[in-house]
Amino acid sequence: MSGLSESITYNPKANTLQILNQLYLPLNIEFEQINNTNDAWEAIKSMKVRGAPAIALLGLLSVSIELGKYEDFLVSLENDPNKLYEFIQSKANYLCTSRPTAVNIRKEFDGLLNAFVEHRNSKASKRNRSKVNVLTHCNTGSLATASYGTALGVIRSLNRRGQIECVYCTETRPYNQGSRLTAWELINEDIPSTLICDNMVAALMSTKQIDAVVVGADRVVANGDTANKIGTYQIAILCKHFGVPFYVASPCSTLDFSLENGSKITIEERPPNEMRFIKEVPIAPLEMNCWNPAFDVTPANLITGGIITEDGVISPDQLLSRFS
Asked: Of these four, 77, 213, 301, 310, which has the most CB atoms within 10 Å of its CB?
């Protein structure tokens, strides 16, 4: 019996659930994967798992497993709280038929559904009270990520919750990713937005209420220093001056702990004609020297809001302990 582990083992990061099949005890120790609520129902009905508390736990966790397997479906449910409530309620009613005498599973699901309603009502109340003005820089939406987006993904989520008053996007010279791409994405999604020049950020923060800045990242190193589109660093400095929270939205794939700090990051320099021309129209003397770095590095101490990852919002100084 020394090899016996917990009778129900759940790994939320891997989205796996397994049970100790009690039908084989005491002669054999065998574990089985639970992939959905049907598997859980069968395991409870056949008494592979028994005991009212264990039945309740397995039922609840099997719903989580099922939701985790279908990301697109889960996103659609999150955007429609009523639909998510009905989904959980349907699964609860089904699982409770497996062993109808055991009361724990019904009580636990009722508690979950009641908490869901309270949370939904609380979120709705906050949405009605708080709309925010957000500034972003460069392009971090579906055009840059082939998906929901990083910084622009955060903005999309806020807008879907009715929490965006206005998104200010910088033009992002010299390649104009903000004016050409981000502005286009914002307009196409009917997100309230205003385009500003790169040199207007200080004036904007001094005259209008900017609640937060959220930008993307091309590399985040071990101490939290972050390389992003040129111009990000100066915006972070302005945020520090005006007391505006500065967030970096970065998938874990952008984290690079092989570099100790931002001074080790190689900064790409782009061709000078990107500054001299727009759509082949010269805007500067051709003889003029140009310095055209594509990125700058924002020190970790200026990332005051935190780094937004798939695992939550993390302070730059906690990156290593969280992910190593």
From this structure: 213
* Pairwise CA distance, residues 247 & 13, whole Å: 24
Region 175-184 average pLDDT: 95
> What does the alpha-carbon distance between residue 41 and residue 93 come to, in Å, rounded to a whole number?
11
- Residue 172, pLDDT > 70, answer yes
d(C-alpha 151, C-alpha 140), whole Å: 6
pLDDT of residue 2: 36
CA-to-CA separations, 282 to 204, 279, 310, in angstroms, rounded: 29, 8, 43
Residue 109's H or E segment, with its range, is: helix 104-129
CA atoms within 13 A on the CB side of 54: 17
> For residue 197, what pLDDT band results from cuts at 50, 70 and 90?
very high
| Cβ burial, residue 287 (10 Å; 0-12/13-18/19+) | exposed
Q: Nearest Cα to 95, choosing from 143, 40, 141? A: 40
Catalytic residues: 218
Give the distance, in angstroms, between the CA of residue 190 and the centroid of all CA atoms in the same chain.
21
pTM score, two decimals?
0.62
CB burial readout 24-41, b (16+ within 10 A) else e: eeeeeeeebebeebebbb
Q: What residues have CB less than 8 Å from 195, skipping those under 6 apart?
A: 168, 169, 170, 171, 178, 179, 183
pLDDT for the residue 79: 66
